[in-house]
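quick one
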Amino acid sequence: MARRRTGPTDVVRAIVYERDGGACVRCGAREGLTIHHRVNRGMGGAREEWINQAHNLLLVCTVCNGWFEDNPRASYGAGWKVRRPQLPSEVLVTYADGREYQLTPDGARALMAVTR
Ligand SMILES: [Zn+2]
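structure w/ zinc ion:
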């Protein structure tokens, strides 16, 4: 029996890695990196097509990935997490350099604000 695939494809992972410059979006670390879902996949895996598209994914280190779960208020505020029914394309993401970007499904990011 084939196991149902619930994560992003290798191609999408590579796109996210490239878009985020090979560094953790929150702290800039270049080691221990993983792919983080902004909107949680939820029980039973991905139902929506966009769950595993680039704009719902961030390159983060495992430390920050855990930090998001412990600090939901700050994580939602910075766009590292997105609360349904908001869509990942609607919420800007703050990167480690303090710049805010809008992410698109094709793996591009548009600079929207410089906060520091
Ligand atoms: Zn980090």
